Amino acid sequence: MEPIEFPVRLNRYLAHKGYSTRRGADELITKGLVKINNKIAVLGDKVESPDDIVEVSAKVIAKIEGSYRYLAYYKPRGISTDTQTEGESIKSSLPALRGLFPLGRLDKDSEGLVILTNDGRLTDRVLSPDRVHEKEYLVKVDKKITDTFIRHLERGVLIETYKTKPSKARRAGETLFRIVLTEGKKHQIRRMCAAEGYQVLELKRLRIMNIKLGDLKEGAYRDITGEELAELKKSIGLQ
């Protein structure tokens, strides 16, 4: 799901967040079931910025909660998370899960954990640059890892004109390391390694916040439910 641009009409905002269709959103607004910044919304209202507080009636939320799905999926290498591009993508490889979208992206040449959902409320709460959520990766590079390399990854690496935020990194083998990031710049790990003179040969995402890849096989998925789902929602303010 692509990020939404502000200002945006309230009905489109609600549809984007997965509360209803645009027509359904108009009905919710007409019935006085939606508020913007603690004021009951009316048809034609706009959400001016991400800082606006949009509230939907608890009764409505309770009704639609049961229709949300949350999946942990092991994306194989060669599969794109961009549903708009040509070639093999999550959308084409998992036709039974139409209606779900990947929460964020993972490079086509990378593999590992992707969260799939139809709950648009998660998008900004997980992907916004202002949020600090951990993502853990296992990376294989083309030559022996040094202490200096690990230290630079942890302190931040200058990629072009941007210095990456501090991270947690540790050696996992002669040419393997684990790294935990709290940001998600495009091709960030590959660019960080390149800046230090290393080439990434393999990259696997192991964890997004409390959701772990675990023993999932390539191309397989599982439902995120129970305590695992409750912890995820709590960490992003949905409970």
Key terms:
9-stranded mixed sheet; elongated; alpha+beta; rRNA pseudouridine synthase activity; 16 strands; 3-stranded antiparallel sheet; single chain; Structural Genomics Hypothetical 15.5 Kd Protein In mrcA-pckA Intergenic Region, Chain A; PsdUridine_synth_RsuA/RluB/E/F; PsdUridine_synth_RsuA/RluB_CS; 8 helices
Number of domains: 3
- Biggest sheet overview: 9 strands, mixed
* CATH class placement of the largest domain: Alpha Beta
Helix count?
8
CATH superfamily of the largest domain: Pseudouridine synthase I, catalytic domain, N-terminal subdomain
Order of helices and strands: EHHEEEEHEHEEHEHEEEEHEEEH
What class, by secondary structure content? alpha+beta
Number of strands: 16
Low-confidence stretches: none
Query: N- to C-terminal separation?
Result: 23 Å
Overall residue-averaged pLDDT value: 90
